[in-house]
Amino acid sequence: MLPPFKLNFRRLLLVKGHGSKQFLQGLITKDIELLNENNKLIYTFLLNVKGRIFVDMFIWRLTNILENNDVESYGIEIDPEKLEVLQKALNIYKLRRPIIIENLNKFNVCFCSTIKDFQQTSSKTIINWTSDPRISNFGYRSLIENEGENCLEFNQNLEKEYISHRYKWGIGEGMEIIDQIPLAMNGDLLNGISFDKELISRTYHSGIVRRRLMPFKWLFNDSLEINMPEDLTLKDEKGQRQGKLITSNGKSGLCLVSVGFVPENIFIRLFDSNGRALEVWRPNWWPKT
Predict the structure, then answer these.
(1) CATH code, domain carrying 112
(2) How does DSSP classify residue 138?
(3) Cβ–Cβ under 8 Å, residues 278 and 260
(4) Which of 107, 92, 18 is nearest to 54 (CA)?
């Protein structure tokens, strides 16, 4: 279980001003109209011209929270390595709209894994703890002031545990999934795509997703850590290619594998380009086929 802690590897951009909602609605894969007084957080993607992931993001509804007025305000939570490039892109896309796009440094994104965990913290939340919109039961997120006596401390060990937690659930995030196809990264299963949006209907049709992101663990002594090979190809025992590695923390990770090769409730053994074995499985939160 993960107690409340700062996600120090996440950053926030503020998008505010008249027309901010319409502006973001035309760029993202999720329907921003789903944000309201009772639902202040969605998960979504911004795609590049090839229909691949430019950046994945959470959008926090901050209207009437930052300021005591009805000015449309949103917090864009992203990987810090994409902060500057996303800010530049949004400033280009906004044209002459009266919209402000700037860093939002006064808040930290925080995470915990259970309701019991956040009920025990005394930290002052700007937005109440809310379920991570990607998967129910995965965890809870909140925005907390980054200064003051109730500020949560940075904990590097908990950040590493959060990454392992994501890998176990089969969830990619940030730089791990840049330039990937959103459906292959389970964007549809993670509630990051609204297929009734015109933007999405123009880009995707209801075809079969042949490869998807899945969790894996290396099969070796737990005291060792394995580095990612240069050749990311994964093969089965017959030497046939079945997918590729996406990311790893040395003990577990995420890989892109042919869906038909991994049945439900079965652990499948694959091998990397150096012949090292790993086990792949379908996450149990996937819809049953």
Answers:
(1) 3.30.70.1400
(2) S
(3) no
(4) 92
